[in-house]
Amino acid sequence: MSYQSDLYQQVILDHNKNPRNFREIEGHSNSCDGYNPLCGDKINIHMQINESGLIEDIAFSGSGCAISKASASMMTVNMKGKTVADARVMFEEFHKMITGVMEPQPGAHHLGKLTIFQGVREFPSRIKCASLAWHTLVCAIDKTGETTIE
Amino acid sequence: MGLNKKPELMPEIEKIRADFPMLSAKVGDRPLVYLDNAATTHKPLAVIERIRKFDSQQYATVRRGSYRMGEWATEMFEDSRKKVAAFINAGDHRQIVFTSGATMSMNLVAHSFGRKFIGAGDEIIISNMEHHANIVPWQLLCLEKGCVLKVIPITDSGELIMGEFDKLLSPKTKLVAITHSSNVLGTVNPIKEIVKKAHAAGAKVLVDAAQSTPHMKIDVKEMDCDFLAFSGHKMYGPSGIGVLYGKYEVLESMPPFLAGGDMINSVTLARTTFAKPPGRFEAGTPPISQVIGLGAAVDYLSAIGLDRISAYEQSLLEYGTELLGKIDGLRIIGTAPHKAAIISFWLGAAHPHDVITIIDQDGIAVRGGHHCAQPVMERFGIPATTRASLSFYNKYEELDQLAESLKKVIKVFG
Fold this sequence. Notes:
The complex is a heterodimer of chains A (150) and B (414). By secondary structure, chain A is an alpha+beta fold. Chain A has helices at 3-7, 10-17, 66-79, 84-98, 127-142, and strands at residues 30-36, 41-49, 55-63, 146-148.
């Protein structure tokens, strides 16, 4: 186990330094504030979802560690153009991957480049950092206002 | 100032370290470098063995049985109370109430003193550097009673703005609840001056001493505070035990907080009369072994001497501040001239959570986060800090290791 090869890979460091879709969406259709009370991380997700359930735009703002920021950034990149139903499947798969329940075999999942986060499972205290944006995504889709991961 | 190691201030450091079994623990293949003492401290063998002896040879319930084992246990239990009283120069040991920790001590004051003596329109003064345990109980009380919470602001170096405190004080002020030493900034506040001014305005003062009791000599008579709260597990004793010191006449004026066995004079189904302090506030079977362990911790600290502990820790603080201050992009949060040995910092590109994960690989334990003091984070415009908090069992070399490890973090995030 090494933090450099398993956790802080170049792609993650790059998304931390230059987060994509790090903005707000004016007139968004969906949003949610996600909190991790343990470390004080806050992530806000804005989404534009059309009538047929297609995610036309998604963006995030807030503050957090490299893992939570990179996870949010890469999630938004992978979510644009997907349907709400796709998003739910990906949430389930991502969650199973980082908690070690699912081995991301090539071709057997919808996560694509997001498999880069599988090393998080070796750092149990960081799993919530990686999953904060995803819980917030589901909350935004369901319009439940805000979410706190315990 | 300067990068001066002064090992002569604690010449028996290796002997002291050998007193703490946890300090020889390994994290993976690395020796533990424990710099999270503001969160909790390790226990010396003197405490561990005392509890072991009590639990295996002397254990009985206290203040109940009339058999001899029970009497002896009660005697040892009350002896711990006397030790704690002497430790903070309280004089009368009936002014020592055992609680589960500083948090419960402060909640006790809120629920008992607060509910009886603080009403609608009355004011409570706290500061911007409080731990949540000295904020939330007062917010809840104010929600219930309609009292108003006022906050003393702090400077950029992390000191109370005393001129603002003077302005906040008024005949409406019923209580000033203030930390002795900040768990994030390290700042040591001028308690004597605060108490003097508060008393002149007719207010009582509660001091949160959770972060000061392990590091400096506490003298409640000299402070003249009305209440003082602290925890056993932050001063080399067991967790689950804490203390509320209260001036006897103040404690006596207060109603019970928890109700149950042990806090009564007599109970009939129609009416109950309550015991005198401290028993009035100690309902139920107390944490007996923990009280015995706390007594042993007090003995251990007293044997080394709080003055020597302070001097050595101050030298560690000076060394660490200088050393970490040299690291590019590292900003120390809390630079008051009078500080306990806590170094909180913000490391530019790397979030505290990432810092702790990386230096944890080197066996270094520090805390990253908001330290249950979110208003402090807000004041300094950061979401979290990394915090190294020192003890007299730490060595200069451990600070060297911390600095080296932080350089690795910068390399990753650079």
